[in-house]
């Protein structure tokens, strides 16, 4: 059995801040698509949940992952980083054998 991805409290807190400022609170979708400089890339955006999505929920906030992306994100940790170079959701993915410098593209 593979481990589902995990979302940190910091990522849920940032999602809550984003949704507080919006009239239409939505889940954060974390997906994997082909492309990028390393073969796969993360697609992180606000989106509505679909019936077959895995839903990770805490404190009224939801992060959703589609079934196709789930094997690529098994055991991954979804976090939020606020650094000098910018603030963004980041993924620590144990399945990635390498990734690009920006952190949005990876290979397996």
Largest sheet: 6 strands, mixed
Strand content: 35-45%
Q: Give the CATH H-level superfamily.
A: HesB-like domain
Span of the ends, CA to CA: 19 Å
**Helical content band:** 10-25%
Quick check: average pLDDT? Answer: 85
Number of alpha- plus pi-helical segments: 1
Q: Number of DSSP strands?
A: 9
Q: What is the chain-wise order of helices and strands? A: EHEEEEEEEE
The SS-based structural class is mainly beta
**Architecture (CATH level 2) name:** Sandwich
Radius of gyration: 13 Å
In one word, what is the shape?
Answer: globular
Uncertain segments: none
CATH topology: Hypothetical Protein Aq_1857, Chain: A
- The CATH class, by name, is Mainly Beta
For the largest sheet, list the strands in their spatial order. Answer: 4-5-2-3-9-8
Number of domains: 1
Please tell me about this protein's structure.
The chain has one helix at about 10-20; strands at about 5, 30-35, 40-45, 55-60, 60-65, 75-85, 85-90, 100, 105. The protein has about 110 residues and is mainly beta. Strands 4-5-2-3-9-8 form a 6-stranded mixed beta sheet, with helices on one face. Strands 1-6-7 form a 3-stranded mixed beta sheet. The longest helix is centred in the first third of the chain and has 12 residues, at about 10-20. It starts with 5 loop residues before the first strand and ends with a strand. The mean pLDDT is about 85.
Quick overview:
The protein has 108 residues and is mainly beta. The protein is built from one helix and nine strands, in the order βαββββββββ. The chain is globular, with a radius of gyration of 13 Å.
């Amino acid at each position: 059995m593979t481990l589902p991805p995990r979302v940190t409290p910091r990522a849920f807190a940032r999602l809550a801040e984003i949704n507080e400022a919006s009239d239409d609170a939505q889940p954060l979708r974390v997906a994997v698509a082909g492309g990028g400089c390393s073969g796969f890339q993360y697609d992180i955006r606000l989106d509505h949940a679909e019936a077959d999505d895995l839903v990770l929920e805490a404190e009224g906030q939801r992060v959703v992952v589609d079934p196709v992306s789930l094997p690529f994100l098994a055991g991954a940790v979804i976090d939020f980083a606020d650094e000098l170079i910018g603030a963004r959701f980041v993924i620590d993915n144990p399945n990635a054998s390498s990734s690009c410098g920006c952190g949005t593209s990876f290979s397996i």
